[in-house]
Amino acid sequence: MIAKKLINTHFFQCSIYYTRANLREALIDLLQHTTYALVNVTDIAKQAGVNRVTFYNHYSSKDELIEEILELLIEEYVALINKYEPAELELFIQLNYTHYDQHAKGYKLLLSEEFPEYKKIYIEHLQQSIRSILMKMRRNPNISDENYNFLIEWNVGGTLQTIHNYLKEETRPSPEILSQRVIWMTTSMFLD
């Protein structure tokens, strides 16, 4: 009897996870073609292949759903950047672009103007990680702190624009190729 309860509990938990993931993916897919304001719960449920009752069994509103999507994406990014030391620059950059590639639809939303508070949080984490890496890469003592900080901010802006462009392209270079380009540019700017 205990084994049956454990199996049922496990199945139920898997079902909840699958349904929530399916609803998240449905909203992400819908937002690739329309704005958030034009999407409603019925649209999300239909896209996910469930009914409205099932939607409301998992989320109180579409706002709760989009918040979960964006928060999970930011949490996953923060976990990624906290996992690697700046000494592992090539691996760090490649993993970042692989992550962007795997979650391209989510990052298009995160970096859109529809969710400015989440975009700001993500950019703050991006700035912090880039600043940390580049400060540890500093080799040239002849560059003033003011100029070095300017180089870092310039690099952050360039990185953000590169990410935007990368996500817009239908046929984009592989994360490996883009990582090689970013590494070449970064090391030539900061290590020479």
Short characterization:
The chain has 192 residues and is mainly alpha-helical. The protein has helices spanning 2-30, 41-48, 52-58, 62-83, 89-102, 104-110, 116-137, 145-168, 175-190.
Characterize the structure shown.
With 192 residues, the protein is mostly helical. It folds into 2 domains: 59 residues, Arc Repressor Mutant, subunit A, CATH 1.10.10.60; 131 residues, Orthogonal Bundle (Tetracycline Repressor, domain 2). 78% of the residues lie in helices and 0% in strands. Helix 1 packs across helix 4 and helix 5 runs antiparallel to helix 9. The radius of gyration is 20 Å and the shape is elongated. Keywords: DNA-binding. GO terms for molecular function: DNA binding. This is TetR/AcrR family transcriptional regulator.
